[in-house]
Amino acid sequence: MFACRLPWWRSSVTCKSWQSGHFVPWGSCQMLTVKGVNTTVGQEQQAGMKEKQMLEDSEMHLTRRDAEALFQEQPKTGNPYLEDTLLQSYLKTHLPLKVLEEMHQNLERFGKRLLNEIQPLGWECELNPPVFRQFDAWGRRVDHIHTCLAWRRMKEISAEEGLIAEAYERRYTHWSRLYQAVKLYLFSSSSGGFSCPLAMTDGAAKVIESLGIPGSLKNAFDRLTSRDPEMFWTSGQWMTERRGGSDVANGTETVARKQPDGSYRLYGFKWFTSAADSDMALTLARIADAEGQCTQGSRGLSLFFLRVRDEQGKLNNIQVQRLKDKLGTRQMATAELWLQGARAELISAEGRGVAAIANMLNITRIHNVIGAVAAMRRMISLSRDYACKRVAFGKLLKNHPLHVQTMARMEVQVRGAFLLLMDIVRLLGLTETNLASEQEQLLLRLLIPVAKLYTGKQASAVAIEAMESFGGQGYMEDTGLPVILRDALVLSIWEGTTNVLSLDVLRSLAKSQGQVMAVFLSTVKKKLELASGIKELSPAAQRAQEAIGSLQQFMTNMGIGRALSMELAARDFSYSLARIYTGRATREPQSRGMGWVGRDLKAHPVPPCHGRDTSHCPRLLQPQCPAWPWALPGIQ
Ligand code: MFK
């Protein structure tokens, strides 16, 4: 089923004309520029053709020589932890020394493993996407999703490295969550898509933990958080049905029928189930009453746990209809599933399914942010290395100020996003260890959708910009760069689209009756006051203050209660929150001098006013933030 989607270098059927170095459009293969192809043309013509071929062959010799001289040096990156100066500076600035020492050692080791073992496996996952086999040779329905060896190895490595376990063992108390996020961030762009099942696995563990780990779910929790590859389970999150994935309350048709033993059987069609090879899943369904009737809307939804297969590997009354043919994340099996009486356990209060699964959503949304920051970092690292090798117009790219300025703009994007991510996982860690104040919990609730929606857009824009920095090479499949772009494009779609998350920002405002906004503003202002006292940062802090002023003005004029106007402004409003918050983070005194340009480009600092172009600021802030520097095309 994948054959028609494969790029030429992955296809076993290659046009010989292409192999010979002479590309011939399919329609003109009859013209006999290809050796050894029988044709219907006459002998005379054939002789002429032979002569022509010889001429072409001699020309080809020269062409080949020329082509060899045109080769570019491949961009390479080293240990991703050691090369990430911003990450290292952040850890140094924020972590207690003892914790830092332990983490540093482990991250250095992990970085080496990523480079030598995990990156090649990730590429193998890309080259060997899952294959679905519905029937065996004897006509028996098997619905087997075959995943490659490298994919299965990723699962083992995830357990060995404690990529989920780390967050739940809490050996570094509230820093454990941050540590886990750092490992996932380093892992993400080498993981061959395995970060997706890990996101849902983490989300499922979080839901079970938040339910107090009931006895019936203890085994599942232990497995989701295990470091033993033999024990480790991954989880799916089946929310999307054929009527849509955003409006879950109205789109969910799956029905749950209670069994005499207290368990349930689920009947329905799940239209987009990521990582369908997972061991278990959390899913929503409507419980049918004695008459078979269900409550519609959000209040009719309950949350269920189910095993996908039994111990013998037999599907739990589930049929796989087909695998999805996606633009990206092709390494991962996303399937359409029929639930035909799948045995499941009710794990939320009846009718509280959405609220219960929100715990999972908030975790997977954080993973989405991790994926976005990681994709940007990877593209920029490669681009940076290339700029130190590629000569154009008589000098290295790194010596062209315009090129450096373009890279600087991307770097500012990823820096802001990284610091936002770190703040979120720091707050999550505090919340999970009961150390967070009420204000910090509110701030976390607001920042998750803000960060998810904003970094999702940033990742696509930065990936496209970085791809361009390689010229035509960036567009070539076998450089691996298009894979990163394709995989980044989904980040603003799944786990809630930009608009759905903008509305979630409003939901958090409404639910806290505006309290969350007060916390946001006071947090940002406090940090900016610190920056104002530092000469070098004070002009930027001043501009951020002005942006906050205009945001407050907007809210006063609007009034949170005016639902329609607020809905129309939701996206711009959320972008403004993201920009103000990341602006605050990048202007913290600790964030200065974190060596963003890296080893080879240090000689080329960012021009002081890199880009005063305001045309991409959200309308709300445009006139008031003339120096908002990190607006990229595509983020509007
Ligand atoms: C690299 C990363 C990899 C990630 C891989 C993941 C792959 C998986 C692919 C997928 O599964 S994609 C599908 C993901 N689906 C979504 O993200 C759903 C998008 N839609 C929404 O988020 C809607 O806003 C939502 C379904 C939540 C709307 O549902 P409702 O029922 O209309 O919402 P309602 O009635 O406002 O809220 C119900 C309850 O949930 C309320 O609680 P209360 O009843 O106590 O007041 C809300 O406060 C609560 N709630 C909703 N969203 C919440 C939340 N609570 C906390 N946080 C939230 N985000």
Automatic annotation (TrEMBL):
Entry superkingdom: Eukaryota
Domain Acyl-CoA dehydrogenase/oxidase C-terminal span(s) in chain numbering: 351-509
Record domain Acyl-CoA dehydrogenase 11-like C-terminal: where: 515-583
Residue span, Adaptive response protein AidB N-terminal domain: 78-210
Gene3D superfamilies for this protein: 2.40.110.20, 6.10.250.600, Butyryl-CoA Dehydrogenase, subunit A, domain 3
Swiss-Prot/TrEMBL cofactor(s): FAD
InterPro entries in alphabetical order: ACDH-11_C (IPR053998), Acyl-CoA_dehydrogenase-like (IPR052904), Acyl-CoA_Oxase/DH_mid-dom (IPR006091), AcylCo_DH-like_C (IPR036250), AcylCo_DH/oxidase_C (IPR009075), AcylCoA_DH/oxidase_NM_dom_sf (IPR009100), AidB_N (IPR041504)
Keyword Magnesium assigned: no
Record PANTHER family: ACD11 DEHYDROGENASE (PTHR42707:SF2), ACYL-COA DEHYDROGENASE (PTHR42707)
Family: Belongs to the acyl-CoA dehydrogenase family.
Name by which UniProt lists this protein: ACD11 dehydrogenase
Organism: Zonotrichia albicollis (White-throated sparrow)
